[in-house]
Amino acid sequence: QKEVEQNSGPLSVPEGAIASLNCTYSDRVSQSFFWYRQYSGKSPELIMSIYSNGDKEDGRFTAQLNKASQYVSLLIRDSQPSDSATYLCAVDHAGKSTFGDGTTLTVKP
Amino acid sequence: EAQVTQNPRYLITVTGKKLTVTCSQNMNHEYMSWYRQDPGLGLRQIYYSMNVEVTDKGDVPEGYKVSRKEKRNFPLILESPSPNQTSLYFCASSFQGLDYGYTFGSGTRLTVV
C-alpha cells in the first residue's frame, strides 16, 4: 500500500462545476497536509494547507481533513479551464514530505 | 522577488562524472528539500534540511549527498551519477510550522548517459 493514495483519475468536469479530489494516507504521525497544483512542464505550486480536522476555505478552494479516517480532500468550486492541471496531495511530518501520484483534472469549457 | 533558484535548468552528463545542482532561496526559510520526479513514480523526497547543519534522508537518498552550510543554500551532489538518476529534480523551501508548505524552484532536468 502506498503511503499517500489519490483517486487515479483523470477527472473531467464541465466549466462551472465542482471538482472533488480525494487523498488517503497511511502514516498516523503525519501532521500537515497540502494540495499542490502542477501544470504540465511546470513546478508544483502550493494551493492549500490544512492541519486541523474540518474544513478550510480559500476562495474557490476548500480543503477537508479527517484524521480519524486518514482522509484529505480538495473541492474546487466554479471550476475554470485554467484549473486544468495535475493536483498533488502531500503529507508532512517536520519537513519530511510524501506525495501522492497526483490526479489530473480537465475542466471543459 | 521571493523565489527558489536552482541551476542549471538542464544538464546532460556522463556516468561517473561528479556534479552539483545548486539551490538558493531568498525567503529566510528554515526548511529546504530536494525531490525527484519520474513518470509513474511521482514526486519523491531525496533529502531535507530543517536548518543549517541539520539534514535528514527522504525516501530515495541513495547516490546523493547534500550539505546546508548556509541557511539560503542547499546544493545537491551526485558523486558518481548513473543513468537511473536521470530525472527532473526540484528544490523547495518552507518556513517551519504546520501551516507552511513548500515553495518549489523551476526544476533541473538531468540526463546521465
Textual characterization of the structure:
The complex is a heterodimer of chains A (109) and B (113). With 109 residues, chain A is mainly β. In chain A, 0% of the residues lie in helices and 58% in strands. Chain A has no helices and 11 strands. In chain A, strands 2, 4, 5, 9, 10 and 11 form a 6-stranded mixed sheet that branches. The model of chain A has no long low-confidence stretch (mean pLDDT 94). Chain B has 113 residues and is mostly beta strands. Chain B is built from no helices and 11 strands. In chain B, strands 2, 4, 5, 6, 9, 10 and 11 form a 7-stranded mixed sheet that branches. The chains are: A mainly beta (109), B mainly beta (113).
Which percent range fits the helix content of chain A?
Answer: under 10%
| Helix and strand sequence of chain B | EEEEEEEEEEE
Helix segment count of chain A? 0
Major sheet summary line of chain A: 6 strands, mixed
Q: Can you tell me the residue ranges of chain A where pLDDT is under 50 for at least 5 consecutive residues?
A: none
CA-atom Rg of chain B in angstroms: 13 Å
Q: Give the strand content of chain A.
A: over 45%
Query: Biggest β-sheet of chain B, characterized?
Result: 7 strands, mixed
Short descriptors:
heterodimer; A: 109 residues; mainly beta; 6-stranded mixed sheet; 58% strand; B: 113 residues; 4-stranded antiparallel sheet; 11 strands; 0% helix
